[in-house]
Specification:
By secondary structure, the protein is mainly α. Helices cover about 75% and strands about 0% of the residues. It has a single domain, classed as Orthogonal Bundle (N-utilizing Substance Protein B Homolog, Chain A).
């Protein structure tokens, strides 16, 4: 849900709060899950310039604005979870990002996402 909301905001240039509440109104998540989605989406939005700088730093030959919206949204969410959400294990953040890439990305997305996140993890977070 967090990824889909971020994707909707990125692709449609929708207002964050409107997109967030619209997506949450269409689901039956637990209160804990809804709190996570709000926290993650708002956090990614707040840290967007830093997240994009990090993606640019680890994506050799790619700039964040040239990435597809799916990969960009997955990377922003996963890096936010890795760096800012201490309650989410790093391995879980990486695995969930790869699973999202398999489901929503193209054939190259899972490997691309895994490689970039592996670099972020090895480098210890933000550069």
């Amino acid at each position: 849900m967090a990824f889909q909301t971020l994707f909707q905001i990125d692709l449609g240039k929708n207002d964050l709060e409107a997109a967030l509440e619209y997506r949450l109104s269409e689901t039956t998540l637990s209160q804990q899950d809804m709190d996570y989605v709000r926290r993650a989406v708002r956090g990614v939005n707040q840290q967007l310039p830093a997240l994009d700088r990090q993606i640019n730093a680890v994506a050799e030959g790619w700039e964040v604005h040239r990435l597809g919206s799916i990969d960009r949204s997955i990377l922003r969410l996963a890096i936010y979870e890795i760096v800012f959400m201490d309650d989410i294990p790093v391995g879980v953040a990486v695995n969930e990002a790869v699973e999202l890439a398999k489901e929503f990305g193209d054939d190259n997305s899972p490997r691309f996402i895994n490689g970039l996140l592996g670099t972020v993890v090895r480098d210890g977070g933000f550069q």
